[in-house]
Amino acid sequence: MRSPLALLLAAGVLVAAMATGAGVAAQPLETAVKAAFLPKFAPYAAWPSASIPPAGTPYVVCVVGHDPFGQLLDEAAAGQRRDSSPITVQRLSRIDGRSGCHIAYLGGSPAQPVAAALTALAGSPTLTVTDARVGRDRGMVHFELKSGRVRFHIDDAAAARANLALSSKLLSLALSVKQRGRS
Fold first, then answer.
1. pTM for this one?
2. Pick from 60, 44, 132, 72: which is nearest to 98 by CA?
3. Residue 32's pLDDT band (boundaries 50, 70, 90)?
């Protein structure tokens, strides 16, 4: 049986195939796939015990700055769970290590560019997600459109510095993995 994340990756291939030749339609489809990925990362990450919400309390996916997803992310998170906890979405203009976000998509803004958000979160147990469409600054997960498909790179070394553990299943789906213990 395939994992939900592997099925989502396969859906990304299907979306890319549908978008081929569609031009303008490709970006909304790409955005929908990224929105679907964000809440799916939660079951494949392990947070330090002090950051795990009590049973029934939500894991929080934050969109910081520019929000390309809108309702797509809210719909993707609806009904998703990690263990006994629901996954909810918050939107913030700025973020720091005390924001209460478990996963943070860093969209950048004049109030807090992506690089500043990454600096503000350095060492905090927040899974940072960035996007090649936004810029070159990279979080622990970095989306990229590769051969018409939404894929991602993983910086497992940055995750280790934040006391996060990422599942080998998630690592196996990445285009590249910056291993723990390497600079």
1. 0.86
2. 60
3. very high
